[in-house]
Amino acid sequence: MRYVISHAKIHTDLLQKIQELSGQNVFDCYQCGNCSSGCPLVEYMDYAPNQVIRLAQLGALDELLESETIWICATCLQCSSRCPKGVDVSKVMEALRVINLRNREGRISPDDIEKMTDEEVKELPPIVLVSAFRKLSG
Amino acid sequence: MEYGYYPGCTLKNHAQNFEDAALLAMEKLGHPLTEMKDWVCCGTVFSQTTDDLMLQLAAIRNLLRAEHQGYGKLITLCSMCYNTLQRARDFIKDDPENLDKVNQFMYKEPISYTGNVEVIHLLSLLQNEITWESIAKQVVKPLKNLKIGGYYGCMLLRPKEYAIDDFEDPVILENFIEATGAESVVFPYRLECCGAYQTVTNKDITVKRTFELIESARDAGCEAIITSCPLCAFNMDQRQKETAEEFSQFVEMPVFYFTELLALALGVEWNSNWSKLHYVNPEPYLKAKGLI
Predict the structure, then answer these.
(1) Domains in chain A, number
(2) Nearest-CA residue of chain B relative to A122?
(3) What is the extent of the structural domain holding A114?
(4) With an 8 Å Cβ cutoff, are A75 and B48 in contact?
(5) Which residue of A41, A76, A134 is in closest CB contact with B43?
(6) Is residue A73 domain-shared with residue A38, that is, in the same domain?
(7) Exposure string (b/e) for B110-124, b if CB count within 10 Å is 16 or more?
(8) How far apart are CA B151 and CA A5, in angstroms?
(9) Quick one: closest CA in A to B195, which residue?
(10) What are phi and psi of A64, to 5 degrees?
């Protein structure tokens, strides 16, 4: 993929917003890959956690906001706990999710529950439903 | 009274066995738990964005009510409650502006929250206040010949600032297991995520996680595993149904809440209603070991 890096792409309000929402400076990352090597769900992601940070550094924010990765992340915090530079990767993932969620772009809605049988719903403990809705719905 | 007990949403239904066993065990240990009044769900997951106070309110409301009821310390059994309450507490602790905003929003509560309630996981209480030595002395039915893996999952250990033990090499569950008289088995995936809430939107991912985690435990020599998280328990136990359908070579493994084993070791009668809340019925295993 040809991707042109420019000052204008990197210095955007949106990147500023991602950094504010997450409280993280994505430019601290030096791409060691520790986050991705510890991620338990990396095999299901379209961008590995270190690639998410790299794309943010390059200003490729549309790619990130449309990625599957941010919805696959289960917020287990393994990446964050192992980063030698103290970048809380899971907070960057959360910021990217939240920007979508505040535009009502989520991955679960009450309609999904309506479609399930009573038996299927009863099977799910409150902790499962509340956490899924808190992380994946707007 | 200094300690209040905060149950959280799932301990009154799907994880009633977790709570029942804890209450009976703590009575045996001479440290009965008193449930705080008027608690609400903590929100289960901590909101990690910097700007949304609203999502911290449920957790903070519990801390406020605990403070009002005279509890300086809140005991949780659930890993996720522990994590969420603890992080919400610190989110406003040293931030007078946000603390004030939160209090203004909760103006109907009888007091303003000061930010001083401590949150303690039951495992830390057992380790620090009761001690493993004392528990081992009070065991009347040692869980001899049980080979148990301590499954930590995420929320007891991460973020590392809130870890109840070393976040990469914890021993608290292993020490707990040894105190009950069982043999603790360390398995490689004991600190790994079960897939958490992906179990709703990507069930296939969590089913594969369950397969990998349980197989990792079995390869290391575990006969059963213990957890302190109802979400882990759901994925590791209930999802074994789908795991067996998906992976023909998969063999079921009992998954306990740690309090169930504690109660058993302290001489509490096993309750068959607890078994009904498990997907993999643990009774054949306990019977084979001569414990029930």
Answers:
(1) 2
(2) B14
(3) 107-138
(4) yes
(5) A134
(6) yes
(7) eebbebebbbbbbbb
(8) 45
(9) A74
(10) -70, -45
